C-alpha cells in the first residue's frame, strides 16, 4: 500500500515537473487572495505570489474595483525578487491586452473607446483601456476648443490615426468621429432640402462678404448681395449673431454640400415696377449711396439705384471729380434719362433738373448787351471772363482794342481784373459766348466815317508827303493816297505838288471795316466828274473840246 502511495506521489511530482512554469514577460492569470496596505496579493499559481498596487486596478478618474477572490490577468515581470515574491503588474497586462485589441481595431478601421485623462504639450493623453494614446490639439474637435474641461474623463469613441507597438506610440482623433457623424447629419439635412424652399435658420457667423446660417446641422452661406434688394455695405447692418431668420434655398451643390441662401428672394422685387414708377424725363428725389471716378449712384428707393454719369452732373463743371459736386448720403433731385430693366440699370441726370445756363444767358443777355465780369483765365488767343450762371465768355485778341494789336493789348490785363464787355454772340449748342471789350466804347471808325460810303466825295487834309504818295486825314482817321491815284494825268501824279495842310477833295473807292481803312483817290474823283459833265453838257464827239465842256460845267457850278 505504501508502495502504491509512493508511486502516485512520484507520478504527480513528475507531472508537475513536466508542466513549464510561466515565462517571464508574459500575461498570466491569478487570483486575489488578500488586500492589505493599498496592495492586492495575487496568487499566480506555481507556488508564486505577487503584489500589485490597487491603483493599477482603477480606470483614470475612477476608484479601484477589486475584491478578494477576483480572477485577474497580470504581467509576470520576474518569477522571484529578493523577498521571494513574483514581480507582477496589472497595468502592463492591461497594456498588452489593450495593444492586441487596438491593433485589430486599427487594421479593421474600427472606432475604439477611451477617455481623455491628461494634458500634454500639443494635445492630450487618452486611456484606451490600458494603452495610453496621444490626441493632438487639432484633432479634438472640428473647431478650436478653448476649454477641454468638460471632455476630461468622459468615455467616448476615437479613431486611431497611427500606431507603433515597438515604440509604444498611438495617435488618435476625436475630430474624425465628429466629422463623420456631422457628414451623415449634413447629408440627411441636405437630403430634406430643395432649391426654392423657404427655411428657418440661425445666424451663426458674420463676415465681410455675408453670413453663415445654421439650418439644423448644416450651414448655408447668405451672401451680402442676397440679403436685401438695396445696397448693403456690411452684413452687420441688418443681421446679428444668434438671430433667427427666414431664408430661401437658392442653390445646393450635391458634391461639395454647399448651400447658397437668400433673404431678398422672399420679398417683392422692386424692379418689377420701375418702368411704371419712374417714367423717362420724370424728376425724383434720391439719396447718394456711392461715389466713383465715373459718377455717383443715387438710390431712388430701397433696391433701386441709378447712376448719374459724371457727364450728366453739371452744366459747367466738366473735368471735376463727382465727389466735389455731391457727397455720400446727400439728398438730390435727379431726372430719369434711361431705363434698362433687363440689366437692372437706370441712367439719371443731375444737371437736367436745372436749366441750361447758356440758354438762360441767351434769353437774359441778347447780343449787344453789356456785361461785367472777372478775368478767370488768360490764354494766347484771348481772355475768359466769368459771367452769371457760373459760365465763361471769351474775349478774342481782336476784340480787345481798336488801336492796339491784340498781342500788345492783352498785356494790359491780369487774372482777377474786373472788365466790361459787350455780348457779340451766344452759341447755346456749342456752349460758347463771344464778348468784345473794345465794343464797350463804340467803334470810332464807324463814328468817324458816319454816312461815308463807297463813291462818296470827301475833303481830306494832307498830313505827309512821301515818294509813293501822300498821307491824308479825315475826321482823325489816317489814309494814304498812292501816287497813281493823285491825278488823272500822269504828269500831275507828283506828290511834291501837294503841301502839308492842303485840303483836297477825294473820292472814296473802298470802305474796309476789318482793316479800318478808307480807300481814297483824286484820279477817281476827276474821272467821275468828267463823266458827269459829258452827260450833262454834251459829247466830245460833237466837236466841242473837253475844255469847253468842263468850262461850261464849272460856270454852271458857279
From TrEMBL:
One of its GO terms (molecular function) is structural constituent of ribosome. It holds the Pfam family S1. Gene3D superfamilies: Nucleic acid-binding proteins. Coiled coil: none annotated. One of its GO terms (biological process) is translation. PROSITE patterns: S1 (PS50126). The keyword Repeat applies. Keywords: Repeat, Ribonucleoprotein, Ribosomal protein, RNA-binding. Residues 25-91, 109-175, 196-264, 281-351, 368-438, 455-523 form the S1 motif domain. GO terms for cellular component: cytosolic small ribosomal subunit. Binds mRNA; thus facilitating recognition of the initiation point. It is needed to translate mRNA with a short Shine-Dalgarno (SD) purine-rich sequence. Belongs to the bacterial ribosomal protein bS1 family. This is 30S ribosomal protein S1. It comes from Marivivens niveibacter. The lineage of its organism: Bacteria, Pseudomonadati, Pseudomonadota, Alphaproteobacteria, Rhodobacterales.
Amino acid at each position: 500500500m505504501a508502495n502504491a502511495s509512493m508511486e502516485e506521489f512520484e507520478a504527480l511530482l513528475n507531472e508537475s515537473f513536466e508542466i513549464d512554469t510561466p515565462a517571464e514577460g508574459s500575461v498570466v492569470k491569478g487570483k486575489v487572495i488578500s488586500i492589505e496596505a493599498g496592495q492586492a496579493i495575487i496568487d499566480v499559481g506555481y507556488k508564486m505570489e505577487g503584489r500589485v498596487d490597487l491603483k493599477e486596478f482603477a480606470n483614470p478618474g475612477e476608484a479601484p474595483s477589486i475584491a478578494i477572490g477576483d480572477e485577474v490577468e497580470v504581467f509576470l515581470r520576474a518569477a522571484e525578487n529578493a523577498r521571494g515574491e513574483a514581480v507582477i503588474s496589472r497595468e502592463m497586462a492591461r497594456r498588452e491586452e489593450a495593444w492586441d485589441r487596438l491593433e485589430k481595431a486599427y487594421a479593421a478601421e474600427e472606432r475604439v473607446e477611451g477617455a481623455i485623462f491628461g494634458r500634454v504639450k500639443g494635445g492630450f493623453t487618452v486611456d484606451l483601456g490600458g494603452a495610453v494614446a496621444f490626441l493632438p490639439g487639432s484633432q479634438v474637435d472640428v473647431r478650436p476648443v478653448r476649454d477641454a474641461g468638460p471632455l476630461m474623463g468622459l468615455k467616448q469613441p476615437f479613431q486611431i490615426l497611427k500606431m507603433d507597438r515597438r515604440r509604444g506610440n498611438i495617435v488618435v482623433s476625436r475630430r474624425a468621429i465628429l466629422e463623420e457623424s456631422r457628414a451623415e447629419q449634413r447629408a440627411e439635412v441636405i437630403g430634406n432640402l430643395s432649391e426654392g424652399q423657404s427655411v428657418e435658420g440661425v445666424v451663426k457667423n458674420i463676415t465681410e462678404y455675408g453670413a453663415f446660417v445654421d439650418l439644423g446641422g448644416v450651414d448655408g452661406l447668405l451672401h451680402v448681395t442676397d440679403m436685401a434688394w438695396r445696397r448693403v455695405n456690411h452684413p452687420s447692418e441688418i443681421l446679428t449673431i444668434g438671430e433667427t431668420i427666414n431664408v430661401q434655398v437658392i442653390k445646393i451643390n450635391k458634391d461639395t454640400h454647399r448651400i447658397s441662401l437668400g433673404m431678398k428672394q422672399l420679398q417683392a422685387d422692386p424692379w418689377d415696377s420701375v418702368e411704371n414708377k419712374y417714367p423717362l424725363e420724370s424728376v425724383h428725389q434720391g439719396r447718394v449711396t456711392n461715389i466713383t471716378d465715373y459718377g455717383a449712384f443715387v438710390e431712388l428707393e430701397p433696391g433701386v439705384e441709378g447712376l448719374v454719369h459724371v457727364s450728366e452732373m453739371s452744366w459747367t463743371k466738366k473735368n471735376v471729380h463727382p465727389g466735389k459736386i455731391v457727397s455720400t448720403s446727400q439728398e438730390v433731385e435727379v431726372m430719369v434719362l434711361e431705363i434698362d430693366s433687363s440689366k437692372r440699370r437706370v441712367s439719371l441726370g443731375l444737371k437736367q433738373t436745372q436749366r441750361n445756363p447758356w440758354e438762360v444767358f441767351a434769353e437774359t443777355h441778347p447780343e449787344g448787351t453789356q456785361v461785367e465780369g472777372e478775368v478767370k483765365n488768360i490764354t494766347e488767343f484771348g481772355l475768359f471772363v466769368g459771367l452769371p450762371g457760373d459760365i465763361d465768355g471769351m474775349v478774342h485778341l481782336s476784340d480787345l482794342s481798336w488801336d492796339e494789336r491784340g498781342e500788345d493789348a492783352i498785356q494790359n490785363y491780369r487774372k482777377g481784373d474786373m472788365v466790361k464787355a459787350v455780348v457779340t454772340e451766344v452759341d447755346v449748342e456749342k456752349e460758347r459766348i463771344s464778348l468784345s471789350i473794345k465794343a464797350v466804347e463804340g467803334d470810332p471808325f464807324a463814328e468817324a466815317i458816319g454816312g461815308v460810303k463807297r463813291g462818296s466825295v470827301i475833303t481830306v487834309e494832307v498830313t505827309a508827303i512821301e515818294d509813293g504818295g501822300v498821307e491824308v486825314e479825315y475826321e482823325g482817321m489816317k489814309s494814304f493816297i498812292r501816287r497813281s491815284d493823285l491825278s488823272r494825268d500822269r504828269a500831275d501824279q507828283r506828290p511834291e505838288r501837294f503841301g502839308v495842310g492842303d485840303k483836297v477833295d477825294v473820292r472814296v473807292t473802298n470802305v474796309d471795316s476789318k482793316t479800318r481803312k478808307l480807300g481814297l483817290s483824286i484820279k477817281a474823283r476827276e474821272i467821275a466828274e468828267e463823266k458827269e459833265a459829258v452827260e450833262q453838257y454834251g459829247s466830245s464827239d460833237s466837236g466841242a473840246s473837253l475844255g469847253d465842256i468842263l468850262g461850261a460845267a464849272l460856270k454852271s457850278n458857279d
